[in-house]
Amino acid sequence: MRNSGIAMARPSSMAAPQSKSNTAAMRPKSIVFLGTAHDNGGSSILATNLAEVMRAEGHHVEEWYLFDSDGHHPAGTRIFVKQQRARSPLTLISLFARVVIALWRHKPDAVYGLQSLANLITGIGGRLAGIRNRIPTYHSAIVHQNAALMKVDRVAGNLGFYTRVITCAETVAETFVPNGPAYAKRLTVVVNGQKKPSTFARDEARRELGLSPNDIFVGQIGRFDYQKNQSLTLDLIKDLPGIKLALLGAGPDEAAVKAAIAAGHLENRVQILKAIDHVRIGLFYAAVDAIVFPSRFEGLSLAAIEALHAGVPLVCSDIPSFREMFRDSSLLSETLLAPLNDRVRWLTQIRAVLSDTATRSRVVSELARLSPSYSFDSMAKKYLAVIDQ
């Protein structure tokens, strides 16, 4: 089984938070989560959920975002610029100054950055404002971050602007180790956890989502873009007769996805679902028979963890993050991972979890065994544990 502590079989250069007395751990903290935009992506959803748990434990937690977005903003969210992301130098300089002043006035015990630009402001701006704990978080490998911002990030980390650097997975942390020993010693792996989705009866879920009650459905959840690779799923469904596809998401490639559906004459077999409030995301997992995650890259997918918690078989691309997710189970690694360029393997894996009763039963049982390794409450405690180390 996976070690539930933060310091798990990571490169030796990565640091782990030290234990603290119960008294120190229980002292209420003032915490700010600072993001670039609350776009309903994984990092912002994660911050909202962490804030909720931390408040329940007596801490004062606020969510701040640099820019506005079309995403749902939790009550009390502070937004500095009431427009979507801007690149104007004057806007960015003014924004930086406003955040530094806000941090100086608020004086939180800790600031957690959520996305690349916000991470830099967390470190540099937080230090100027006298914030003791300045903790950026990274949810994907360095190669998938903004290259220009990563150059500044490397300098900031080596000069001590960050007190810790959290990554969501060991495979993500490994990509930051080459930033140098001063940076690497601040790396702390806090493996992503996720809340278990609410449970719903399958008939109720399909009725609410407008899916036919008796068909077999494969689902895919995620932003419509290059990373999530809906094009592979649409190609696969052509060779899965009798099976329908439910796509939940939106994003820049939505028009291309719809065009591919029309070009493949799949209008009667593919259904794009309307957005679901995340507190009711369990409707999606209850409604589908299996889920595919053909991502070209990931940090450690929160949606995949939700599917794991829900006990829904999930066939995933054979990339480092999913290999890490299933590495404590040879059964899941062999049954649920498929190389992106191996179309036959994808079709075989999907058919197996849908129609082979014995395989499906073993997979569901193994998902239940692995589920506690991705506990959300455990992750929240580890986020708190890096403060004042």
Short description:
This protein is of the alpha/beta class and 389 residues long. The protein has helices spanning 22-26, 42-56, 89-106, 116-128, 147-158, 170-176, 181-184, 202-209, 230-237, 254-263, 282-287, 302-310, 320-325, 330-336, 343-355, 357-370, 376-385, and strands spanning 30-37, 60-67, 78-81, 110-113, 133-135, 137-138, 165-167, 187-189, 216-221, 243-248, 270-273, 290-293, 314-317, 337-338.
Structural description of this entry:
With 389 residues, the protein is an alpha/beta fold. The protein has two domains: 22-191, Glycogen Phosphorylase B (Rossmann fold), CATH 3.40.50.2000; 202-374, Rossmann fold, CATH 3.40.50.2000. Helix content is 42%, strand content 16%. It contains 17 helices and 14 strands. The chain has helices at 22-26, 42-56, 89-106, 116-128, 147-158, 170-176, 181-184, 202-209, 230-237, 254-263, 282-287, 302-310, 320-325, 330-336, 343-355, 357-370, 376-385, and strands at residues 30-37, 60-67, 78-81, 110-113, 133-135, 137-138, 165-167, 187-189, 216-221, 243-248, 270-273, 290-293, 314-317, 337-338. The protein has a six-stranded parallel beta sheet, sandwiched between helices. A five-stranded parallel beta sheet has the order 3-2-1-4-5. Strands 6-7-8 form a three-stranded parallel beta sheet, covered by helices on one side. Strand 12, helix 12 (302-310) and strand 13 (314-317) form a beta-alpha-beta unit. Helix 3 packs across helix 4 and helix 4 (116-128) runs parallel beside helix 5. The model is unreliable at 1-25 (pLDDT under 50).
